[in-house]
Design goal:
Chain lengths: 488, 471
């Protein structure tokens, strides 16, 4: 674990990283990456051939690949930080073939994040393991609205990464973690990245911030639902999804008016039950509007197998883990396991709840799309149900795109498939049938009733009624997903 | 192994009765393509398979390399008897009443194909290892035109997949291989699939068919450019790409003079300064054939060596040693890039050559596209402007557009073929307009303001099979 008492030493480490060009771009260009860096054992010998003997190559061997280098090379690459001092700081240790780093250091999103050494495909060796930047980190960061605000809270901060990102657009950021090693890593990372307005407190969840309110709360919690308690970063305390429920309720309670909470969560639901039902009950009466983005639901076997992949090298351990997880699910009557993102916004008055089942794979920064979804839901709420939507003036969002596949038959173009998406940000699509495609192409900001009048021009009264009946839910869906917005 | 119809016929019946097919396995177990004897996934596979007999029994025996109880095996394999399958060498009846299979048995479309066992985490053990239906082998199946022919030759047949596929549209198929074990498996597979028109001949490449000619020649050779000689199925033992070059140069002599078609998967060395197709054009120059050169990708030496030695990555020292050996070899031969793809030759043309980049996996309609691209050579340049051309039925245009005030702004249009060779061409607005007008029955000379200037782009669309003669 890196020590935080030698602040000047950390500054010298930053200087060394800067000097060597230890950045996302250098890593990508040197290693020829198309996606994010991952330490696949297959790739290490290839990477070694692409790295040169310069300072960057040495630092990448140490901090990216977790390899030993000879002491002289390390000394040269670390200057102006002295090797002995780096050892005292707890980021280096003597090794058989020279020295090795005791931490991983991954540049990401304008930051450099120290974490425990990644053990490639193998399960981590310690319970209080501090995980580095990994896919859920990225998802959470992308979904967080990046508006200027006063106070931000990162619950279960781990390496501190979300708090450091929030500190860039909030006056101050607080990170809490029950794992004291995580708090040390987070403080180290704050200093390493020259972030002065992030503060880290040791303690469980909201305990260290009792009574405080925040404009932004983010959390990438241990949301896996399992009988395990092996890893603080993965396994939530309590039974099934009780931990995530608690997280959602407590976050809602500590949001300032108008503040957003973005929480990665897992939950269980019945096979026949709508996936949104349990989460809906969590936020009822919380004083917050809620949008739940549901990524996927899995059956117990697929869930157990995918979360225990790292154990595959040890057949007995893998088999017994699956057995144990399935027993646990059976005992608790768990039929389906879901995960996704709960987005809350505190607002007085009567609150609304919306759920969208969307794939959330790799995307660009989409915080502005989350905010837009809240705005369009507010708009729908103001309009009320039924035919009131007919008076609405709606246009497609300026950053929309339509992907269409067409075939030409005898010189005529026939649209076979069309889908609406956004250019950047959210990466989900909405399929458009022929009527929907015509409807969206006519949305010009005049009242919807006029748009539909023009569209149904010349049709029978019955056909026009049907047009309205199919168009209203369509426009509602366009607004709900942020593909359409109220006209200025 | 004995290719005995009295044993394999009943086995085929048992497999068909259990609906032992790719589609059924994907539907029943939802793990398409993932059923391989990867020990690490065994606990997961076993739970997914559950007790859905007889299908689960067949998967255990023939895809996962697991043993099953004698009674369970007997029930799943009836009407074939365990004793006869054991006598034929396919099953081993172990002590304690357990049964296991000596071979993997892959369902491929409506065929069953036996091969040696393969494991994702372990390199093959024997030099005469017979590879199962690999991804390249399936690509070649897709690329092969399936029009009826009089005779066909599969050079380096391996487990016999190409020969089996070809036996459905050629009354006479010769399957040749230097590896006698491959021919044993090919005979077994032919009988297992009830195909009686596959003849096997032992010998290197074309040696066993010297002086004969065929309407169709297919070849999935050991094309890897490497210093190794470990595996017959992978390593030719000849320097650089000289093996593939010699092979391609030999093909025309075995093609029927009246339009015989030959397809070979190949790797070749090319340099960054020239087009990827330059070496292949030299190979086919003066062959008396029209040629279609298909590239899937080119890799630099490091990426190529890593890709072919990935299976060793679990043994870091062996992996490292292999990379060092392969890279030293490329260094010595001054290799800059290594291409991978296919050469298609059709005898009797005027030596026209088309080169296409096809980064994606070909689908089942690719054979028809290959024929179409070869046919495009027959449209002489001069006639192109006055020929009535149309978009083929299997074209699609993909557009990304944005709407502003009811006006659509097209950001990009891509014309592509679907269901076969994934070729595509970007269309600007004029080109989009042009193809629509051609399809409506006009000729390019009528549509284009400057026909001669538009000719190269038009020819490219025709060469890619994106425009075809109307009617």
């Amino acid at each position: 674990m890196p020590a935080t008492d030698d602040a000047e030493g950390i500054d010298l480490l930053r200087a060394a990283l800067d000097r060597a060009g230890y950045t996302v771009e250098t890593i990508r260009d040197t290693l020829g990456l198309v996606g994010p860096f991952s330490r696949d054992p297959h790739d290490v010998p290839v990477y070694l051939r692409l790295l040169r003997g310069d300072a960057f190559g040495t630092l990448a061997r140490l901090f990216l690949l977790g390899l030993q280098v000879d002491a002289d090379a390390a000394r040269g690459a670390l200057a102006p930080l002295e090797l002995e001092r780096a050892e005292r700081m707890g980021v280096f240790a003597p090794a058989a073939d020279g020295v090795e780093a005791t931490i991983d250091l991954l540049p990401w999103n304008g930051l450099r994040i120290a974490s425990d050494l990644a053990a490639s495909d193998l399960p981590p060796t310690r319970e209080d393991y501090v995980i580095g930047v990994h896919p859920p980190t990225v998802t959470l960061a992308e979904l967080t609205p990046r508006r200027a605000a006063r106070a931000a809270l990162d619950v279960g901060t781990g390496s501190g990464v979300q708090a450091l990102l929030a500190a860039a657009h909030c006056e101050r950021a607080v990170g809490t973690d029950v794992n004291p090693r995580a708090v040390e890593f987070a403080r180290f990372n704050a200093r390493l990245n020259g972030v002065a307005n992030a503060e880290f407190r040791s303690g469980d969840l909201f305990e260290p911030v009792a009574g405080e309110r925040f404009d932004l709360i983010v959390c990438n919690p241990p949301y896996v639902i399992s009988p395990e308690s092996a890893y603080a970063f993965r396994d939530g305390p309590g039974r099934a999804d009780a931990f995530c429920e608690e997280l959602v309720r407590r976050s809602a309670a500590q949001l300032a008016d108008g503040g957003y909470a973005i929480l990665l969560v897992g939950w269980v639901h019945g096979r026949e039950e709508p996936w949104s039902a349990p989460v809906r009950s969590w936020v009822e009466g919380s004083g917050c509007d809620a949008i739940v983005l549901h990524t996927a639901s899995q059956d117990p076997l697929s869930y157990a197998a995918s979360w225990n992949k790292a154990l595959r090298w040890d057949r007995l351990a893998y088999a017994s883990a699956i057995e144990r997880w399935l027993d646990y699910d059976r005992e608790l009557g768990i039929e389906a396991l879901a995960w996704g993102v709960v987005c809350l916004r505190r607002r007085g008055g009567s609150n609304w709840f919306a759920g969208h089942s969307v794939g959330l794979g790799r995307m660009d920064a989409a915080g502005h799309h989350v905010e837009r979804m809240f705005e369009t839901h507010d708009y729908l709420e103001r309009l009320g149900g039924g035919q009131t939507l007919l008076s609405a003036r709606v246009v497609l969002a300026p950053d929309h795109r339509i992907d269409q596949t067409l075939a030409v038959e005898d010189g005529e173009r026939v649209v076979e498939r069309a889908a609406l998406r956004l250019a950047g940000g959210f990466n989900f699509e909405l399929e458009l049938n022929e009527n929907a495609l015509e409807l969206v192409s006519r949305l010009d900001g005049s009242p919807l009733a006029d748009v539909l009048d023009a569209m149904g021009d010349g049709a029978t009264a019955a056909a026009r009624r049907e047009l309205v009946e199919t168009a209203l839910p369509m426009v509602r869906a366009l607004l709900a997903l942020g593909f359409a917005v109220p006209a200025e | 192994m004995k290719a005995d119809p009295a044993t394999l016929g009943p086995l085929r019946e048992a497999l068909a009765a259990a609906d032992y097919s790719e589609a059924r396995l994907a539907e029943r177990f939802g793990i398409q393509g993932a059923l391989s004897p990867d020990e690490r996934e065994r606990p997961f596979h076993l739970r997914v398979l559950g007790d859905a007999r007889p299908l689960s029994t067949l998967v255990r025996l023939f895809l996962l390399a697991l043993d099953v109880g004698r009674d369970e095996a007997a029930a799943a394999l009836a009407p074939a008897s365990l004793e006869s399958l054991a006598a034929g060498g396919l099953l081993e009846l172990g002590d304690g009443g357990r049964v296991c299979s000596t071979l993997a048995l892959h369902p491929v479309a409506d065929l069953y194909v036996a091969s040696d066992w393969e494991r994702e985490d372990r390199a093959p053990e024997r030099r005469d290892h017979v590879l199962g239906p690999s991804a390249p082998s399936r690509s070649l199946v897709a690329l092969t035109p399936r029009e009826p022919v009089r005779s066909a030759l599969d050079v380096g047949t391996g487990c016999g997949l190409q020969a089996l596929e070809t036996a459905r549209h050629a009354p006479r198929v010769v399957a040749a291989d230097v590896n006698p074990r491959a021919l044993e498996l090919t005979r077994l597979n032919a009988v297992l699939n009830g195909l009686e028109n596959v003849e096997t001949r032992e010998g290197s490449l074309f040696d066993p068919v010297e002086g004969e000619r065929f309407d169709l020649v297919v070849c999935n050779p050991p094309y890897v450019v490497s210093p190794e000689t470990a595996y017959v199925f992978r390593d030719s033992g000849l320097p650089g790409d000289s093996f593939c070059e010699a092979l391609v140069r030999r093909v025309p002599r075995f093609l029927s003079a009246d339009g015989g078609i030959g397809l070979a998967l190949v790797s070749w060395v090319h340099c960054t300064a020239e087009d990827w197709s330059a070496p292949l054009r030299r190979w086919v120059d003066g062959s008396g054939c029209d040629a279609l050169l298909i590239r899937r990708h080119s890799l630099d030496p490091l990426a190529y060596a890593a890709a072919w030695n990935r299976i060793l990555a679990l043994e870091p020292d062996a992996y490292e040693a292999a990379l060092a050996r392969w890279l030293a070899y490329y260094e010595e031969l001054r290799v800059e890039l290594i291409g991978w793809g296919a050469v298609v030759l059709r005898r009797g043309g005027r030596g026209a050559v088309t080169a296409v980049d096809v980064p994606g996996e070909p689908e089942s309609g690719a054979g028809a596209h290959v024929s179409r691209l070869l046919d495009a050579h027959r449209l002489a340049d001069g006639a192109l402007l006055d020929t009535r051309l149309a978009l083929p039925d299997d074209h699609r245009i993909e557009q990304a557009l944005a709407l502003r005030n009811g006006q659509a702004t097209v950001e990009q249009s891509v014309l592509r073929l679907v269901g076969g060779l994934p070729v595509e061409a970007r269309l600007d607005l004029q080109a989009l307009q042009l193809v629509a007008e051609l399809d409506a029955g006009r000729t390019a000379r009528e549509v284009l303001s400057d026909p001669e200037a538009g000719l190269p782009a038009l020819r490219q669309l025709v060469e890619l099979g994106l425009l075809v003669p109307a009617g």
